[in-house]
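Please produce the structure of this protein holding flavin-adenine dinucleotide.
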Amino acid sequence: MTDRTRDASPPGRGMRICDVVVAGSGLAGMMTAILLARKGRKVTLLTRGSPCLAISGGCVDVLGYMDGKRVHGDPLEALQTLPASHTYRTLGKDAVVRSLALLSELCEGEGVSLAADPGLNMWMPTVLGTFKPTYLAFPRMDKDVMEAANSVIIPRLPLKDCPAELALRGFSEVAGVKGKVFLGSQLDHPFGHGHRDLTQLDLARHLETQKGQDWLVKGLAPCLRRGAVLLLPPILGIDRHAQVRKLLEGELSSPIAEMLSPPPGVGGLRILGALRRAASKAGVRIVENAEAVAADVEGGACAALHCGTSVRTSFAAREYVIATGGFLGGGIRAYPGMAREALFDLPLKVPSRIEDWSTRDVFKPQPYAAVGVAIDGSMRPVDRDGKVVLSNVRFAGRILAGHDPAAEMCGNGVALASALRCAEEVGADV
Ligand SMILES: Cc1cc2nc3c(=O)[nH]c(=O)nc-3n(C[C@H](O)[C@H](O)[C@H](O)COP(=O)(O)OP(=O)(O)OC[C@H]3O[C@@H](n4cnc5c(N)ncnc54)[C@H](O)[C@@H]3O)c2cc1C
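Below is the modeled complex.
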């Protein structure tokens, strides 16, 4: 770690002071900032670009797989049997449970409903005709809904990236739904054929308008059957998702289920929008396009973060939470044979041979995925001997060592629980 000492007192021009600076506005950073601001802390949130949430389906995975095998039974119980080095073992089951409840409550208050099937993972249909496990998701995104229906109709929408035929082919092979999934009629292009190719995001936005809802109701009318479920890509609105879904189900007198799909992540954008609204109501000061590029460290504590890009300002606080993501988000950087945390230049533990960073089977756990910042029980970074290296800095989310979101399906679960733990450690009784 570089110990760059600056004259920190009195703060110079351009230095903004608050109680807590949070760097990174993904699920982890947003959630930390909201929880702290709701408890009266003066919080500044530094943002740079879009987080993973913006390109994801928006469901919260807690633990889908362990050692490459499906988790059967309660994932919240299973996470207590993970190895001691796993991120969840530092966070604890209690933090996971409470953070899931806090996110649900927060999203509900912003017009976005989330639901769980307590004690079990839900299996979410995808536009590829497969199912993926998750814990918390938008209502009616569950294999059970398809199994309980007499039939499942997949209407053909004018979307090139979600062909109904592909989903049908996949579901036709799956026990429980095999033989009851059918293609529905083709819907016309809502904006005329001169328009560019549509994405689910275009339709999700369109369905927040009366015109869009009329288009869908008219187009789906020929698909309706008694006891059938309509299965659509995630297009039922963004900011007013719960309202749009209820309205359309009422108009069509039919349950509508949604499938997960590749980016753009309509589901993730629903949650991101809800978090942004909640952050603004809670009084979080969001500084856009403010990439933290350097840190002043004095006597083992952070004295200030300095921003580059369009905002050349420095931020000083008593406490700092770093939620800048992993390799993808930019919180971790890889160099030949080594990896370092990007802001404080903390060295990170990696496999000694570069060949061992990954395995040939891309669906297996990847050693590089577990690379990250090692923390103590109070979320502060520690060195190889377990000694705290920054006394007023805490880390949350994907940047933490010891988990593999893709192979274990645990990304948003870790992000949420670590955000809650950081907020608690910074001093808010959340
Ligand atoms: C395509 C995709 C789909 C996924 N789907 C799911 C899913 O369905 N369910 C699930 O549970 N998990 C999923 N995950 C994993 C999950 O999204 C992440 O593990 C989790 O959201 C990470 O959140 P985070 O806030 O820690 O990091 P990120 O989302 O990476 O956010 C970090 C933010 O910090 C910003 N940043 C970086 N450096 C700086 C800096 N110096 N200053 C200021 N800001 C900075 C980044 O630009 C970014 O906006 C998915 C991931 C991907 C990539």
